[in-house]
Amino acid sequence: MLATNIIDVDLEKNPTSSSIKSNNNMTIDNKNPLEYFRKYFQYIWIFVFTLPLLLSIFFLLCYYITVKNGFVYPLFPYISDTGGHPPVACYFSMMIDIIALLVFIAGLFRYKQIEYYLSREKTATINAERQWLINLNYYSLIATWISPIGLIMIGNFRETENIHPHMAGFLVFWLPITYYMFAAIKIIDHIDCESSAITIRLQSWLSLISISIFIISMPISGYQRGNIMANLNNEIRQHWSPDDDGYEWHIFGAICEWIGIITSLLFISSIGLRMRRFEYWQQI
What are the residue boundaries of the CWH43-like N-terminal domain, all occurrences included (predicted)? Predict the structure, then answer.
């Protein structure tokens, strides 16, 4: 009875206390789960910046192990051939899947960063231009969600076993990521919130030219070898010696592939540096 009276008195003195507690509980329950993780968004750039550099080193390690075991001819094999034989193949597939996740995450957070820039009044002076940039940013996001599918195909369909889906995966990766590179240049050129895109422009063009030469070199080297589809043959492709016809184009194409892929990874690192300078992750 005494306890009941005390409760009644407390409610009379603080009639809203129970409702406040209830509202607080509802606020906690209804709080966006992302709010807890938002404070860590500012560190995403470390992941985006460092992982491509580590992956470049990993590719070189795959090259060393594959050449040491005699799976490929020592001088500049195709990157996929360095990961086409066990035990390297398992690690190669795993790292390609990690790159796919990296591209997905980097694309999403970069999209939110540009979206914030475009929401500022300073970059919204011309409505038509602003809408064009918004659309370009959105299409860039889609590109970074398509290209990881290609990467997963590359990593899980080995060139030594399933070359056709492997090559299809390469195109699914390379075409959207190339679009993303040049879209990034356009966006940076039209906003006032970041430094000039000199490095990114150089990386984008170098990657485009290098990979284009790599693609063109395959039928040319095959034609000189006597079969335009020679690169589809594992034995020919992996053990193309200097004494064989078409070797010059083959090795030139392989070098360009290495330059193009590593340059693409460095492009992602450059995006990571631009994310590092962003100070408003709490507001996206």
Answer: 45-270
Cα(45)–Cα(84) distance, rounded to whole angstroms?
Answer: 31
- Residues 126-148 as b or e (16 or more Cβ within 10 Å = b): eeeebeebbebbeebbebbebbb
User: What angle do the packed helices 198-225 and 247-276 form, to 10 degrees?
Assistant: 160
CA distances to 2, 176, 210 from 219, in Å: 94, 23, 16
Of the candidates 98, 60, 67, 99, which has an alpha carbon nearest to the alpha carbon of residue 85?
Answer: 67
- pTM for the predicted model, two decimal places: 0.80
Write b or e for each residue in 60-89: b if 16 or more Cβ atoms lie within 10 A of its Cβ, otherwise e: eebbeebeeeebbbeebbbbbbbbbbeebb
Statement: residue 44 has pLDDT above 90: no
Which residue from 235, 194, 231, 186 is spatially nearest to 85, judged by alpha carbons?
235
Tens of pLDDT, residue by residue over 183-223, are: 999 999 988 888 888 999 999 999 999 999 999 999 999 99
Rounded CA gap, 144 and 125, in Å? Answer: 28
Are 62 and 80 in contact by the 8 Å Cβ rule? The answer is no
DSSP 195: -
pLDDT at 47: 81
Positive or negative: CA dihedral 84, 209, 207, 177: negative
Distance from C-alpha of 109 to C-alpha of 34, rounded to nearest angstrom: 13
How far is CA 91 from each of CA 60, 62, 143, 153, rounded to the nearest angstrom?
13, 9, 26, 15
Each domain of the chain, given as residue ranges in start order, spans 40-283
Contact 282, 39 (CB under 8 A): yes
Q: Cis omega before residue 242 (within 30°)?
A: no
Tokens of 74: 């020592």
